[in-house]
Amino acid sequence: MPLVTTEEMFKKAMEGHYAIGAFNINNMEFIQAITDAAEKCQSPVILQVSSSAIKYARMDYLIAMVNAAVKNTTVPIALHLDHGPDFETAKACIDAGFTSVMFDGSKYDFEENIRLTKEVVDYAHSKGVVVEAELGKLAGVEDDVNVAEGDALFTDPDEAYEFVQRTGVDSLAIAIGTSHGAYKFKGKPHLRFDILEKVKEKLPNTPIVLHGASTVIQEYVKMCNDNGGDIPGAQGCPDEMLKEASQRGVSKINVDTDLRLAMTGVVRKTFAENPSVFDPRKYLGAARDEIEKAVAHKMTDVFGSSNKA
Ligand code: G3H
Ligand code: 13P
Ligand code: ZN
């Protein structure tokens, strides 16, 4: 089935009170693992690519691999630019065949964010592509933007309403306490569901996006640390919180860190247990299987998108 935009999948997700997983891709193993999981779970899915992923894997390779994946699947799949830093990057992705782009203007002031987002929206819509924007700031690393924890800024629901009206954006990423990477909370995990509720009251028909929403799966953190890794105290958003977010109006949940941890954990374990292995298919194949398992778990047990294709 050819690539689709997120319009229809978000509409159904909002009606059915579940969320669509958006998983970051950097190479063939990630693409195969995610799309195989989506097919087996009969779940719609979003494959997302950051500008550093484009630099790493190269645009033509990413597009060709994604097209090969969708040729072999029957479920709706969107190809999305994650944290697009400027108009030029968004345009390059739209022109290359992406069906959705994010323009991340969260580092700009409100008016500048509106102006730059609208430029992307106008171009994208003229090409039948949908746009996600971001309002509020997440703590942690946003691509090449590093936001200190104290600077994180929750989304203001009134501003969210005005932002959507003035930009015509198709979906909105909000800041309610999540952050990128493997260290999301110092103390007990906590999300501002009250802000989500107010945003949904004002924007009942706008799909809401949660960035920085990895669980930081402890099984993989341990697998890394037990086999030579050094990522102590890593902590993410518990599954129950993400399940609640999916049921309370979040329509897209972004996951990158969990898949990185799965791949790294399995590769480290394989090397530690089999020091004589030097065939990359052995450790990358095992990593691919584990990523597929992690994605299927999220679709089925957390986001509720299984059997919604
Ligand atoms: O939110 C950022 C994503 O995890 C992408 O990270 O820029 O290192 O590819 P990246
Ligand atoms: P995590 O770091 O929590 O996986 O977030 C990924 C993300 O938001 C990509 O845009
Ligand atoms: Zn993000």
Secondary-structure blueprint of this entry?
Elements: H1 7-16, E1 20-24, H2 28-41, E2 45-50, H3 51-57, H4 59-71, E3 77-84, H5 87-96, E4 100-103, H6 110-126, E5 130-135, E6 140-142, E7 145-147, H7 157-167, E8 171-174, H8 193-202, E9 208-210, H9 218-226, H10 239-247, E10 250-255, H11 257-273, H12 280-303
Parallel strand pairs: 1-2, 1-10, 2-3, 3-4, 4-5, 5-8, 8-9, 9-10
Antiparallel strand pairs: 6-7
Helix pairs in contact: 2-4, 2-12, 5-6, 6-7, 7-8, 9-11, 10-12, 11-12
Glyceraldehyde-3-phosphate is lined by residues 24, 50, 52-53, 82-83, 142-143, 180, 256.
Structural overview:
With 309 residues, the chain is α/β, with parallel strands linked by helices. It has helices at 7-16, 28-41, 51-57, 59-71, 87-96, 110-126, 157-167, 193-202, 218-226, 239-247, 257-273, 280-303; strands at residues 20-24, 45-50, 77-84, 100-103, 130-135, 140-142, 145-147, 171-174, 208-210, 250-255. The strands form two sheets. An eight-stranded parallel beta barrel has the order 1-2-3-4-5-8-9-10, surrounded by nine helices. α9 packs parallel to α11 (257-273) and α10 packs across α12. The model is unreliable at 141-145 (pLDDT under 50). Glyceraldehyde-3-phosphate binds at residues 24, 50, 52-53, 82-83, 142-143, 180, 256.
Q: Which key features would you list for this structure?
A:
alpha/beta; 8-stranded parallel β-barrel; two-stranded antiparallel ribbon; binds 1,3-dihydroxyacetonephosphate; binds zinc ion
